[in-house]
Amino acid sequence: MFSVLCLLGFTGVAQSGPEVEADILAIRKIIQTAYVEGLQNEGDTVKINLGFHPGFEMLIPGKDGGLKKFSIAAWKEKIKADLQSGRLPRNTEELISVKFLNIDVSGNAAVAKFEFYVGRKLTYIDYQCLYKFGNDWKIVSKIYQKL
Question: Who has the most CB within 10 Å: 10, 16, 58, 115?
């Protein structure tokens, strides 16, 4: 059990057992592949589509107390422009990495909390919500705290 906790980075869970542990590993993998590699570092739409639900929205707090919604479709358009301008793929000094702080799984719903680094600089705390569709976890929403 200790080796599993070490492998998971002492990630907290709402439920326990082999199925939840497998879900946690799958969630970590989909965030790493679709969000970190696909969306943030490479601009790879195949990887992005693998892990993001088409209805995904990032909620951005407005100065007036409102919320701005940023869809995965809009994000992919931004990525297309970033690829054309050369901002993506990122150079080595600006690569995005994450450190998982907590993954809470309840049945087919989960929330992942992690630190978001640009290079070596801790820049955000991200909270991503995921649903399991069949056997596949998909990122459905995101909120964040800028540091």
Answer: 58
